[in-house]
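the two lines:
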Amino acid sequence: MANEQDNLRYLEDLYVGARFKSDTHALDTEQIKTFAGQFDPQPFHLDEAAAELSLFGGLAASGWHTAAVTMKLLVTGPLKIAGGVIGAGAELSWPMPTRPGDVLQVESEIVEIVPSRSRSDRGIVTLQVETRNQRGDVVQKMLAKLLVRRLVKNDAK
Amino acid sequence: MANEQDNLRYLEDLYVGARFKSDTHALDTEQIKTFAGQFDPQPFHLDEAAAELSLFGGLAASGWHTAAVTMKLLVTGPLKIAGGVIGAGAELSWPMPTRPGDVLQVESEIVEIVPSRSRSDRGIVTLQVETRNQRGDVVQKMLAKLLVRRLVKNDAK
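prediction for all of em together
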């Protein structure tokens, strides 16, 4: 659709301070155990009784599951980047666990935009990303560096 | 098993410079598309033809998929931490894409150990984690901060 195409953002379309809010994602016990079984097979992500005795004090999602759901909410969210959401790197922390029944939502803000010196067709956008549960508690903080295309104008000669 | 129990490491058992090497994990197209469909639904992770035209120049795994497989290799690897592998935070970068057919392996090294000042029963271990493919190329670098239990001795009085 022409309309969707129009919404794709290049580096020049973005500005520091721009904020975006995602849709929500409801996490349940089955999703938590399925992800953990594949990627983080530890008792506190797989078994309620074992989780009670762990540092988490109850079943908790893998932090990588929270990160993956955050990515889904970013990709399907309102910031549509030309060429896609391509991460060069990220800093993550998990201030508190994600629990079964949590409904996650992502709020992000552009905090830095740096055009590449060596490649005139791109730049790095730093996005501050907070993932919250339905009570507003931050379950993940992330600073993500995204590779974003520039609108390259044919201005040679 | 008593033997497995004996291998569980507390903060006091660890030292800076200790190195660990994981098992391997073979990634195929189906795994890449399944993960991306759930968590990173972008054309370059889902469709070969679209991926050819993208910055990746071919189908690539989501960086979060590489991170999740890295976690699996850490958790199932030789460093068995008492209380489990619990991340407080991580810094990640993806120097090159992970491709269908890649066989991933994780090498990690303890680079810092800091006992908590406020909580005598724990500390933070910083682990430098490199995920390589079968050619030895680093596809992910990570500095992970892990929460590790101390052997608390009852030395009051």
